[in-house]
Amino acid sequence: MLVSILDDINDVHGTIEELEQFTKMIERWDTSMEDLPDYTKVWFEALFVSSSEIEEETTKEGRSYCVSYTKEAINLILLLTQSARCFNEDHVPTLEENRKNGVFSCTYPLLTVSSLCGMGKIASKEVFDWLFTHPKILASTSDLFRLIDDVASHEFEQERGHVASSVECCLKQHGVSKQDAHDELTKLVESDWKDINEKPLGVPEKDVLQVFLNFGRAADVFYSDYDAFTESRTMIKRFD
């Protein structure tokens, strides 16, 4: 649910002012939703309910520290307004700039935090502290997710109005063909996989590494042939 919410925000259906208003609401958590546009009320309510459920369950387990980490991860949504600003100003960033922002716009850091919340005592406070040092494996998995998504979905998303994807950034920056751009991004994905398969330093629990590997595999499933997450024709519907 959270991924869908943030993915919709990245489609930039609203104005910069509306997006910034929404993110300020997330930061406050204790305010009403009266001033929000109707479509953002749905997003905010879903975020609030999800956060409340996490707080309830983890507190029962004696892991109330998960709550602050979850809220901090959700607040990273503020960075997505930069993507929205690029779209509204008709600006196409460099591929390097887009990949840096893509670490957050792919929503993977938030997904990782949410997954750890459900892993019980394996996900100790030390694990969360390690994750928020932004280890290489987190950046590489996020980048992989963003790039695979962009290659599979950029044509469909550009038709409906969307921020420039990694493909458009590569096309404009290097003046190459669409196929050459796809080939270049595929090489970057292969490099990310190598980084993911390296043994990271300082990880408190080895079982935590499986989370990163599984999300990388999920990206392959969702985006191997087309954007099956956005256009769930047949395959992804089986998991509903």
TrEMBL record:
GO process terms (BP): terpenoid biosynthetic process
GO MF term set: magnesium ion binding; terpene synthase activity
Organism annotation: Populus tomentosa
Domain Terpene synthase metal-binding: start-end pairs: 1-195
Protein name: Terpene synthase metal-binding domain-containing protein
UniProt xrefs under InterPro entries: Terpene_synthase-like (IPR050148), Terpene_synthase_metal-bd (IPR005630)
Pfam families, sorted: Terpene_synth_C (PF03936)
Highest taxon above the source species: Eukaryota
PANTHER family from the UniProt entry: OS04G0344100 PROTEIN-RELATED, TERPENE SYNTHASE 3-RELATED
